[in-house]
Every structure is written in C-alpha cells, then in structure tokens.
Please model this.
Amino acid sequence: MSSLPRELWTKILEIGIQNNGLTYKDLCCISISCRLLHRLSSEDSLWNHLLSTDFPLSPPSSSYLAYRTSKTVYSLKFVRDKERKNAAHRRIVLRKESQIVEHYRKLLVFQTQLSREKSKAIETSTELSHLRRVREASVALNVWQPEVVRGRQKQMVEQCVVPAESRIRALEMELRLCKQQILGLEKSHRDEQRRLDTAEEELESMKYHPLRKNEHNIRKNEHKVKRKKLKSCHSSLLPAHKLQLVLLLTDLVALHLHDTFQLLSSTMRNEIQDELLIL
Model:
C-alpha cells in the first residue's frame, strides 16, 4: 500500500466510481481496510460523484450546506431515502392487508347468500314433493281403491288450496333458478377464495425478511434451551424421592383432586406434610 503514492490511489478510486465499478458500500468496506484508504475514501470528490449518481433528483439544499463533508450529506440523504422507501413499503403492505379484509368480507357475503339459496332450494323441493304427491292422489281418486286409502288421498287433495299443476310448474322454475344461483355463487366463492389465497401469499412475500425470521428462530431455540437448563437445575437440586413427591402434589393440585387428598389416612397426610416442611 505504501509503495504507491496517495495521488495514484485517489485516481484509482475516482476511476472506479466514475465507471460505476464502486458504490457507497465498496467505499465503506475500503475505508476499514487501512488508515490510508480510510482517509482517501472520505474525499469529497468521491462522494460528490456518488451524490450526483445515486440522488440525481434531489440536489443539496441550503440545509445540507451546514455539514462539512459530502460523505455526511450522502449519509443523511441515504437515511432519508431509506425511510421514504420503508414508508412506501408499509403503505403497500397496508393496501394489501385491506385488500385481504375485503376478500374476507366478500367471502362472507357469498357464504350467506349460498346458505340462503340452499335453504330456499330445500324448502322449494319439499313443497314440490308434497304437491306431486297431491297430484298423484288426485289422479288416484279416479280409480277404485280401498276406503281407507281413498279417504286419506281425498283429505290430502282437499287440504291443497291452490291448483297443483300451476303451482308445480312455478316451483320447478323456482328450483331451477335456485340451482343456477347456487352454481353461480359457488363459482364466485371459489374465484374469491383463489384471489384471497394469492393476496395472502403476496402479503407473506412482502413481509418476509430472512434476518428477522432467523432472529425469531434463534430466540425460540434459546428459550427452549433455558427451559431445559432450568428443569435440569431443579432436578439436580432435589433428591429423587423428594422430587417425585413434589411432582405428585403438583398433579393433584392441577387435577383438582382435593377431595381425594382428604380421603387419605391421617398418617399418610402427616408424612407428606413433614416431607414438605423438610423441603
């Protein structure tokens, strides 16, 4: 490093930045390699070029002129640009979450309509089946039958206050319409469910952060290790027979077996209480 003059290193860095070979990350990495490069990587000429290339639409304002170095100005702009990007990302996530809520609302509407149409179809089918039996009974009255059967059929026909044929045709049309409505609602429900699944996958992809996920897994594993250590520590402090006694009493309390404990003999209760006092 010391064999080359300072001006040559400065020229190398300038050429690297002008040819887009070096970025702000590269300059930060270079600055920690040695003292010479640390001084050279803080030159204003280098950071001025990075400012013009990375932030071309935001020229330095009067508020930035109070800072002494271009590197500080770049750092400030970088932080503000990062905050702006994070805010834009949060807005996109919120829009996607509101879209998912709207999908859930539509699914609930489709489910309500489906339930209503199915109930209506069941009622229509039941009434249609009854009217068909009435029609069959009115036809059967023209044929000789036993008096008991004939009386029951006649009563069934007399209870029908509307003409069976016209009502049957109306109910058949209504049942066909219900079936068409159910098919359409089921298709709309499947399409909306597919859109919901797609939106949830997109939201999960937006929220995915590998470092945060690894931190969560590390904390979870650390918590498990601490619990195991605490359990082993407690088990090592107590003798085996005393530990079994404590576990037995814990199970009794957890299972609300107070009455069973009261049924024990007085001698056994006194032994347990003595052991607890010793513990």
In short: The chain has three domains: 6-83, 90-208, 226-278.
